[in-house]
Amino acid sequence: MAVFLGIDIGTSGTKTLAIDESGKILASATETYPCYVPRPLWSEQDPEDWWKAVVATVRQVVDSAGLKPDDVKAIGLSGQMHGSVFLDKNDKVIRRAILWNDQRTAAECEEIEQRAGGRKNLIKMVANPALTGFTAPKILWLRNHEKRNFDKLRKVLLPKDEIRRRLTGEYATEVSDASGMLLLDVAKRRWSSKLLSALELDESLLGRCYESEDVTGTLRPEVAEQLGLSPQCVVVGGAGDCAAGAVGNGIVAKGVLSTSIGTSGVMFVHSDEVKIDPQGRIHTFCHAVRGKWHMMGVTLSAGGSLQWFRNALCKADIEACKISGIDPYEVLTDEASRVPPGSQGLFFLPYLSGERTPHADPDARGCFVGITHAHTRGHLVRAILEGVTYSLRDSLEIIDGLGVPVRQIRASGGGSRSPLWRQIQADVFGRKVVTINTEEGPAYGVALLAAVGAGAFKNVVEACRATIRVVSETAPDRAAAKQYDRAFPLYQKLYRSLRDDFKAITALGD
What local confidence, expressed as pLDDT, does residue 344 receive? Predict the structure, then answer.
């Protein structure tokens, strides 16, 4: 039997699953870990927590599926993008990893643009502007603020690639995840020597860059024994979580777009050619499909906004749901379903972690606008669902404006499991939204990449066609769509009206 593992190093936890050659899921397991917030808008994790979660979930999957060591032929790795693991000459982690949703690097982003000769020139070099979540600004922040740690620095790895190093001993990454470091020449799919030189960074800090299905190494014997696997098991390049999730959703051909609502929200569309937004509002990255690219818009706090509301304001409900065995999210969305589209004039701006697309503004703040005595908790929840979906429509309108064809929208992530949120997406986008036969996201995508790397499929497109199919459709409600079309321009205007106030609020906290 040939089995392939997909491991996804997420922000809230690590998920591992096993599939067979038909794409059938044999077993899966998840382990959570903490996120540290030492200062407002900072976000860090301990890479040791990721490794412990990988060991635990792999062993659980192997045991649950009754796998023998030789059964598992290949492993694919995915993970949260942009995070920085700083290693010294002895491969010891220097400090906690700085994550994708950390906003401390605004000054370093300005420094990068200046060193690159301006924002437009930077976009020409690496296809994207400097954003606070990206990896390059984090490296400069270490140099500017923690010089002792920077002096120790010998390697910078992304979260999934730190796990690769522990699995194989190799310093490696692949093009989709590397695109989000702001150090890759995305058009040429290799490190940008021009930008590295301008930033006075040595390419030796970075791992070797592969295509996503390429084999990057085999398991170290001691690690194979620890995991219950064979030393002959190969580890393929894998993909950043967005590209991996797209593979898992079958977004590997022209005209197909995915909308994913997890902690963050992502609008992801395949492109056969390099297409770059000259204003830098959405990202252009290398795809996990060999020789292809994708465009992507990101909402930093999508499902994270609803999670914040539940955790901060619904603690009593959480405890009551534990007793009754009901999911608290079901209680909240049930209340929201009784509220009419538009939440009776209540808006929510989902900028709890600043925002990326289209504003690239670390100072943006989340807020409810338009609250009256008539509004209930259900209104607040529905406004959150609508506000997150409006933010995704921001990305969709840019994609449409650049002439990228969108013939089908596939919903995934936590937002796809809620019938109400699927309907809101269809209504806000004004287009039919479909779901597919798997909801396993990035872990499933990199398991397919592992299968390709091991030779079970000729390429990624063949793997997706053999394993993924549409299972449901949600059509837009005409009246609701008209309501959202009227409200959306006002949603967009609210950010513009509050932008300067957000900066003043940030200054108050300094």
Answer: 97
